[in-house]
Amino acid sequence: MFAAPLDPAGWMLTTPGTLTVPAGLRYTDVPLLQLRAERPAADGEVRAPAPGTLRSVTPSGGPTWVELQVNPFPLRRTVSALPFGLPTFYLVFDPGATLTPFADGDGVAAGDQLAIVAALTLLCAGQDRIARDPALWASQILAALPVADRPAWAPFADAIAAQTATGADAPVLILDHRGFPRETATVEIRSGATTATARLTAADGGDLQRAVARMHAANPATMPLTTVLPAGGGAATLRPAGADVQLARLEDGAHAASEIEVTPALRHVTVTDLPDWFAPQFAQSDHALARYTRHNEYRSLVNGGEYFDDLFRRLQDALGAGADGGLHLVGGWQTFPDEQLTDVRPWDPARDPSQPPLPKSLVEAATLIGNAHGATRFLSPKFIQLDPGSPVETAELTLFSAIVMGLLRGQNVDFVRTDPAGAIILLALFVLNAIAITWIIDTDGSALEPNKDAVELLDALPNAASRYAPHPATVADNPASPPLSGFPYDSFFKLIRHFGFYHTKFAAVKAGPERYAYAGGIDINPNRLDDIRHLGSGPYHDVHARVRGKAVRDVELTFAERWSRDGGTTGLAFEPAAADELADAGTDVVQVARTYFQAADQSRELDFAPTGDKTIANTLIQAISAAQEFIYIEDQYFTPPDAYRAALLAKVANRDIKTLVIVLPSTPDQPFGEIQRTGFIADLHAADAGAGIVRVGYPRRHYTVADNELRASSGRLELYQDLQASGGVDPTVVLGPKQRLPQVPFWLSVEGELMYAFNESTTPSPDAEHAKVFEVVRGDDTRAGVRPRPHHRGAAATVIDLAGIYVHAKMMIVDDAFVSIGSANINRRGLYHDGEISLFSVPQQLKATPANPVAALRRRLWAEMLDLPLATAGPLLADPRAAARLFDRSFLQGNRFVDFDAHPTHLMYDATGGDGVALILFRLALLDEFVIADHEKMFDAVVDPTSAVEDA
């Protein structure tokens, strides 16, 4: 239960402004609104307001802060009903006050005496970190209590309201997007028949009443109001100054675009300038996209299974709409049109014969929609663009396939690391591929196109059309590219000049009057069929988003523009909606943003983006600049261009944010990208300088027995020599039998001790016929929390799979107030060169609701990364700054997230490392030592090109 911390009789209660929580306590640096309690004599008993744990700090020469972290277990029903989650109370005692003795960590029951004093300050922090007026948090606690427990709290809550928040002079609080008091703001007030302008300063603590009183005392002529609220009762209207503000009332979640009413009962207003978050649309054309639209529904879809399930159910709706149904889809990197991606569940209404069937693949969906007289249109990127008659060499196209098309992606060669025979198979396939390319050249490269089947199968269906979309950019459009007379053009790419792609993965569905749009990182590919459990052989994590409302029009326009260029004479499946055709669908502000290159020659310009488009880059950088609490990033590559690097480094170095969490894949498939991202991560840690802001890592599934497809005994080993607990400076392990040994690197478990074999040793084997010696990482160096111990000859040693969960997402969350989901990776391709699309959103209610969709998405993603059950861990993750420390948990404590340096480098395309098979393949592709020496030119020219729009 909760108990009143003081008997209100004899206490005078005031709200003198804010106090910032000092270092050493849970909510360090958070400004909270004070409840000051004073009485004539030092005879006032102060009690614990709830059961919990005590801790105290006394800043030099200052008051004593007593923190009471409430124990949620005996109060779980009450806490779950509180809009701000679990409360933490602060009781601040004046210097010299005598407290009941306690030690940090001591437990306390509700009502236990803490002190007898003449004065104290009481504050309350919720997990959402919003600064609430004491009358509000006290009343919200009262409303959440069971009826039988309310009498113990009600007199206290009533006294606060009566003495501090009643009538025309009740505090009117202006809060920023975090819910912190605004230090500066200009607000026009209409109160009764009077209109005046008030200007908040830091000394006002966000309280507009204080600003009005201060300004009226200084000059009644310029501030005719004495209070914000009318003296006779009623409401006042507030209009904060700004280019385009978003307002939300904390008490009831009401929101508005420019002005909002306040009353004595509704007087907390959160405000943000939307232009601070959403950059202007960079591309200007006849159908320029909106900077942003309001009243949308923005829904995040985590992992492929959830996205496919939602998409195909909307396609079922389109099928039911007959001729008024349709689909526009841009398939992304590679589309598998005839793979089953969803299924009918026993409880699904689609099992009712009277309902339209649920399509399970893209081919089935397009066929059914076409047979019902609807229409479908598809665009797929074209990878190989050869000029007619170009004498492209086999080696040139082979290297293009290996590097640019990503045929040697790290996650696709895992099998060669657990069985040496796998290397032989992969080697044979690569040699055969090189031979086959001679024939591929004769067909202008079409036989090598990853989306050949998708284009041909879908184009043959009723009322369907499917086209290749070749990206027009050439090396001439890349200002970072070396001269054509130099490397790599004089060595490898003598005739291939196109290295750009349409990387977008988006769709628009029309189902009668209902319209939906999707965008994100998930391709129409069965290897994305994963969920939060990540139990498959290739664990995969990604995020997509769906929108309804006026933002759908901008996605539909984007497809129409692309189709007008590459669709030929075939018309669209349906026309983009008119601006007034789409009804309000929700409470989210949404921006549809894109990346397009800037052509160096007018002949290659995109008519819908003649000077390119960098809206995605600009909005991401603005959102980083607007961050004040935390930034959470998931990205596949994370090799950002200079402007993004500078913005993120500044936020860390200047301590403008308190937490930065970045989740990446352990093994990226970007050639030479490891060099780039490792350097930037080092720069972030240097900017952090031990402040504990930066956490960079990757998710790793808990270990399983390695998947060996050729021999069941592969990886089942034993020690051929005793192993001491301390392996010395360069620890080694002797393993056999030889025929069961995998290629390095690999993880193994020796009687339960995890260790990492990263190289064969030059030390002679004591049994050269049967065993090999390997260099290993043990103990703390594994970052797995294991303790080295001795093992004897003959001990069982098993090769295990510590599979990294491949992070393919391209998303960012800022301060639980902004979310970005799209196809653009954080690299130059994604932000300045290739074709990309992202959906950005800010909730119209900001943080004025426990149902905040941005915070809900963050909790889902963090539960997945931390391997915590969301149903029980949701409250634990409500406070982002406190929850961020969970990323520091040991792998052995259940954490999936591991530090970026958790194992030595062994990445496929890294010039500083690479396993043996990868190096062989690169040499076959003519990627020899001089390529590695010139890797920066290869990176700039081929791997990560840019365009002039980067500097525009």
Structure notes:
Among the domains are: 12-163, Glucose Permease (Domain IIA), CATH 2.70.70; 173-276, Immunoglobulin-like (Sandwich), CATH 2.60.40; 614-700 and 806-899, Endonuclease, Chain A (2-Layer Sandwich), CATH 3.30.870; 704-801. It is of the alpha+beta class and 952 residues long.
Fold topology:
Elements: E1 12-14, E2 18-20, E3 31-33, E4 35-38, E5 44-47, E6 52-57, E7 64-70, H1 76-81, E8 88-93, E9 107-108, E10 113-117, E11 119-125, H2 134-144, H3 154-164, E12 173-175, E13 185-191, E14 194-200, H4 208-218, E15 236-240, E16 245-249, E17 255-256, E18 260-262, E19 268-273, E20 293-302, H5 304-320, E21 325-330, H6 362-371, E22 375-382, H7 394-404, H8 420-442, H9 452-459, E23 464-470, E24 506-511, E25 514-520, E26 540-541, E27 543-548, H10 551-566, E28 588-596, E29 613-614, H11 615-626, E30 630-634, H12 642-653, E31 659-663, H13 673-688, E32 694-699, E33 704-705, E34 716-719, E35 732-736, E36 746-750, E37 753-760, E38 772-777, E39 796-801, E40 806-807, E41 811-814, E42 818-822, H14 828-833, E43 836-843, H15 853-866, H16 870-873, H17 880-883, E44 897-899, H18 916-924, H19 929-933, H20 935-943
Helix pairs in contact: 2-3, 5-6, 7-8, 8-18, 11-12, 12-13
In total, the number of strands is 44
CATH fold call of the domain at 614-700 and 806-899: Endonuclease, Chain A
Helix content: 10-25%
Radius of gyration, whole Å? 31 Å
How do you describe this structure in short?
23% of the residues lie in helices and 24% in strands.
Features:
single chain, 952 residues, alpha+beta, Glucose Permease (Domain IIA), Immunoglobulin-like, Endonuclease, Chain A, 16-stranded mixed beta sheet, seven-stranded antiparallel beta sheet, 20 helices, 23% helix, 24% strand
